[in-house]
Please model this.
Amino acid sequence: MTAASVVWCGPGGVPLHADTRSTLHDGERRWPVVAGIPWLRAGRDDVRERAVAALDAGDPEGAAVVLLADADDWWDAPPPPDAQLRAALAAPTLRDAVDLLGFGRVGTYFVHRWSDPSWLAALALTAAHPPAGRPVVDLACGAGHLLRHLALHSHRDLTGVDVVFAKLWLARRFVLPAAVPVA
Model:
């Protein structure tokens, strides 16, 4: 997906327009699109500006590193060094990537999600109430496990939303490349 392939609305509800292949513009600010993931997280102007600057400099990997370092507000660990985040971009497996991203307990959860009791509850809920051809938006989708399950059961038009770019990057890279992720 390129920035121009979808019309998005920014955090203020203002329509966004592609101003390059890797940035969106709301008339006031520019927003990065890295690895096909529009990053629209409000309240992180410094992160947004650094990612856009890296994209403008022709460094999409550098923009990815900036966004991979951003975490949930409740996360209490410092981000890994840039070199480690760059290494995560080339990780061959989900397990390797979550380790390099410094996800700690969240990484353990992502790697073992399919055996977690909350996962079994999600399966029961979607079995009892399948989307039946309707679009699905999974809020706080993490690495996209539920969307993958739905895709494997022939559901389409799947969008995952999470405030953490790294989680969506994991979804795009390892779990469900076909879903539309939005940070």
Notes: The radius of gyration is 16 Å. The helical segments are 45-56, 60-68, 82-88, 94-100, 104-111, 117-128, 145-152, 165-175. The first strand starts at residue 8 and ends at 9. The CA atoms of residues 164 and 175 lie 16 Å apart.
